[in-house]
Design a protein that fits this description.
Blueprint lengths: L5 E6 L2 E6 L10 H16 L4 E6 L3 E3 L4 H4 L4 H20 L4 E5 L2 E3 L1 H8 L2 E5 L3 E3 L13 H9 L1 H10 L3 E2 H6 L5 E3 L4 H13 L3 H13 L5 H14 L4 H11 L8
Parallel strand pairs: 2-3, 3-5, 4-6, 5-7, 6-8, 7-10
Antiparallel strand pairs: 1-2, 8-9
Helix pairs in contact: 1-3, 3-4, 4-5, 5-6, 9-10
Length: 256
């Protein structure tokens, strides 16, 4: 499959989804969001063991298409919000870990796409924030729920209430980025992280991600019950048998 505004590229079992609207700083419009959704689905169907999300040129995703949004009715805004949520939810539910490689601007909807990924690595020049308040709106693609879980309630409220833009080091300090690297090293750092993930047992990795996500969906007690079942379900699989045999035999495992 091919799209005009996104690229899906492969390196062995790692898929990289690049938003390719550099002249618009990769701002998200309807066509781009729809293409993202299709590309994410294609990567899942083709068995990606890790998915990297990044942007072409000098930006990750500068935000949503404000020119499109400015005259939306309530009903149209509902549909627009649902489309963005569908893409963010697809990243969150992707069957393998997802990595946001944040280069340059990641504002508004761009920040929200990064939040929906499992891990975030940033270039030194990255700037990130939920800037919607200065447009007279609030985040509409998940930040009010995902951001506090990453950075804590107080920091999330300050970022959303004031539309704060954080540089890479400040964002890493509050837990929004797990790693900051030189601009020229971002692609290699994200690829290395993805390769390390892809080398792990795929079914166990998928189960770990599901258990972690489940903890945010309800009570801690419910999450713990799910973890118990998920943990037990991995026993008897090839990767569990191989991983433990390799440990006992002091050798490298050969996972499926």
């Amino acid at each position: 499959m091919s799209w005009d505004t996104v690229r899906l590229e492969w390196d062995d079992d790692v898929a990289t989804l690049t938003i390719d609207r550099p002249d618009a700083l990769n701002a998200l419009n309807v066509a781009t969001l729809e293409a993202m959704g299709e590309a994410i689905e294609a990567a899942a169907e083709d068995g990606a063991r890790a998915l990297v999300l990044t942007g072409a040129g000098d930006a990750f995703i500068a935000g949503a298409d404000i020119k499109y949004m400015r005259d939306l009715s309530v009903e149209a805004a509902q549909e627009w919000g649902e489309l963005g949520h569908d893409v963010a939810d697809a990243l969150e539910a992707f069957p393998a870990p997802t990595i946001a490689a944040v280069n340059g601007y990641a504002f508004g909807g761009g920040c929200e796409m990064a939040l929906a990924c499992d891990l975030r690595v940033a270039s030194e020049s990255a700037l990130i924030g939920n800037t919607e308040i200065d447009l007279g709106i609030i985040p509409g693609w998940g930040a009010t729920q995902r951001l506090p879980r990453l950075v804590g309630d107080e920091t999330a409220r300050r970022m959303i209430f004031f539309g704060e833009r954080l540089d890479a080091d400040a964002a890493a300090e509050v837990g929004l980025f797990g790693e900051v690297v030189a601009d020229d090293d971002l692609a290699d750092a994200a690829a290395e992280l993805a390769d390390r993930i892809a080398a792990k047992p795929a079914f166990a990795m998928q189960t770990a991600k599901q258990a972690l996500n489940r903890g945010y969906e309800g009570s801690q007690a419910g999450g713990l019950e799910y973890e118990k079942r998920a943990f037990a379900s991995l026993f008897g699989t090839h990767d569990q048998r191989e991983g433990m045999a390799a440990f006992v035999e002091d050798r490298d495992p050969e996972f499926e």
